[in-house]
Amino acid sequence: MAHACSDHEARSRTSAILRRVAAYTGVTLATVGLVTAFAGTHADAADIDYTSASAAEIEDHLADLETERDAAAADLADLQTQLDAAKAVIEAAAAEYGTSNAQLTVVTAAVESADDDLDAKVSSLVAYAQQQTDKFEEAQDASESAKELAAGIETEQQEIADLDKQIGKAEKSLDAAEAEEAEAAAAAEAEAEAEASSEATSSADSESDSATASYSADAATAAVQFARDQLGESYVFGAAGPDTWDCSGLIAGAYGVSDISLTHSTWTMWDETSGIDRGDLQPGDLVFYNGQNHVAMYIGDGQVIHAPKPGDVVKISDLDMGMSIDGYRRV
């Protein structure tokens, strides 16, 4: 007939569950020290400023983070293995000592094995009681260790989650740093190529300018006279006559009277003419200013004639009129 357990029976059953310990698995559990043997043994990766770090430095930092995560994962696996072992011990104890029938079976077997010898029966029961006591103490250790192991597992899981976030941030920063460095390298390469090209051009110009370009007096004289005839006419950007001009339009028109074709562009006009030294200037030669954004015609006596800017007119100015001079060219 079934009946409810008394408090004494419940306590006895609980004690019996805790009495089976590491003997079932061959693992000895050592309470608090068990967990601290693993927690925090891996080295922390040093902090890094992603905004100033190079790609190589970020890559090293990322490797440290991944190593740290691997160590934390290994610790977590060890803790989980030990917790599983502790649970197996408790489950085995519950199976063997957790019910009244299980305990009765053991006691009955002990008593029956002693036949009719009362002393032997008592000795068997005492031995069984001592075994329960020993297993109870071992199970208490296992229970405490299980609590510590569970806390250690939670700590490791949180650390791994934090490391995953740091690794994700490091990977993004590494991608950005590599892209920035690649862009800088490409820019430096382009600049080096431009410098090499400029040096080659300068060298070619120097070779071509080593002998002063020949001077066509007739065309130069005609160009100067044409430019003088336009004095006072208005500047209009992009205009090339007959009554309005911009700087390169005036020069192209002046040499056009001698059937010499110059492109209506200061930069192209520079390439279409030959370099000369300042001391070789003759009337009709060209002077380029302000990064080749402006051109004027030399007319002698340290003066040039040009179409300056919007709101101004074709006029005569000093050769050194306040703008930086890029060079002197001859048509």
Walkthrough of the structure:
With 331 residues, the chain is α+β, with helices and mostly antiparallel strands. The chain has helices at 7-18, 32-36, 55-97, 100-113, 118-209, 217-229, 247-256, 266-271; strands spanning 234-235, 244-245, 274-276, 286-289, 294-300, 303-306, 315-318, 325-330. It has two domains: 7-182, no CATH class; 214-330, endopeptidase fold (from Nostoc punctiforme) (Alpha-Beta Complex). It has eight helices and eight strands, in the order H-H-H-H-H-H-E-E-H-H-E-E-E-E-E-E. Strand 5 (294-300) and strand 6 form a beta hairpin.
Explain briefly what this protein structure is.
By secondary structure, the chain is α+β, with helices and mostly antiparallel strands. It has eight helices and eight strands, in the order H-H-H-H-H-H-E-E-H-H-E-E-E-E-E-E. The strands form two sheets. The chain has a six-stranded antiparallel β-sheet with strand order 3-8-4-5-6-7. A two-stranded parallel ribbon has the order 1-2.
Keyphrases for this structure?
single chain, 331 residues, alpha+beta, endopeptidase fold (from Nostoc punctiforme), 2 domains, 6-stranded antiparallel beta sheet, two-stranded parallel sheet, 59% helix, rod-shaped, NLP_P60_dom
**Biggest β-sheet: count, sense, barrel?**
6 strands, antiparallel
Tell me the count of domains.
2
User: Any low-confidence stretches, pLDDT <50, length ≥5?
Assistant: 1-40
Number of strands: 8
The spatial strand order of the largest sheet comes to 3-8-4-5-6-7
Question: What number is the mean pLDDT?
Answer: 80
Tally of helical segments: 8
The class by helix and strand makeup works out as alpha+beta
Q: Percent of residues in helical segments?
A: 55-70%
Please state roughly what percent of the residues sit in beta strands, choosing from under 5%, 5-15%, 15-25%, 25-35%, 35-45% or over 45%: 5-15%
Could you state the order of secondary-structure elements as H and E? HHHHHHEEHHEEEEEE
Overall outline: rod-shaped
Q: Give the terminus-to-terminus CA distance.
A: 127 Å
